What we know:
Elements: E1 3-11, E2 18-23, E3 39-41, E4 48-51, E5 57-58, H1 70-80
Antiparallel strand pairs: 1-2, 3-4, 4-5
Residues 12, 14-15, 17, 42, 44-45, 47 line the site of zinc ion.
Amino acid sequence: MRSTELPPNVTCPWCGYIHDAATSAMRSKPDAVPEPGDVSICLMCAQPSVYTETMRVRKPWPGEVDITDPELRLAMSIIRGLDRRGVK
Length: 88
Ligand SMILES: [Zn+2]
């Protein structure tokens, strides 16, 4: 897995958490670098967002993200189970 630095102040549109990096959660592409249109899952609230052309994230349009995708559901489930004590 490789982390990719994001532009400053990439903010989750769901909870306001500021992301400074992204890491692929896809087993088939562990070193993938995010591109516009890719799905991001917030490490704080586990909600899916979509990268824009400027590598910000926005809420997905209705039906844009397949939340039944097994890989996506697994990643969201793991993130929901993280211990966030001490995370700001
Ligand atoms: Zn969030």
